[in-house]
């Protein structure tokens, strides 16, 4: 019997390769297997279309598009995708803004396995 994985597939959009690799390692250690990554919105769009991720880890500051614009696009085009915003700038205004735009979580960089595990467990309760 196959395990039901309501939070997969997972897509990570971050322009820093080390951040993506670290997040993938954390997610794999938590037992997730179907994980995709992209360095910008241009390369992420085809993955959004083809994989329909259930969870999206999204950096707020990307070279080609502001993460909040991507959040609005994802909420409009993929309403069942749970977006977790990631940023090194975790000001109250930044966090509140992403919540108001429909993010389901916010992780401040640098993050660790405990923070990622906590946000994934929270998502499992609403998925």
UniProtKB/TrEMBL annotation:
Keywords: DNA-binding, Phosphoprotein, Two-component regulatory system
SUPFAM superfamilies: CheY-like
One GO term of the biological process aspect: phosphorelay signal transduction system
Molecular functions per Gene Ontology: DNA binding
InterPro entries: Bact_response_regulator, CheY-like_superfamily, Sig_transdc_resp-reg_receiver
Residue numbers carrying 4-aspartylphosphate: 59
Pfam families membership: Response_reg
Residue intervals of the Response regulatory domain: 9-124
Stated name of the protein: Response regulator containing CheY-like receiver, AAA-type ATPase, and DNA-binding domain protein
Organism listed in the record: Pseudoalteromonas luteoviolacea (strain 2ta16)
Lineage per the UniProt record: Bacteria, Pseudomonadati, Pseudomonadota, Gammaproteobacteria, Alteromonadales
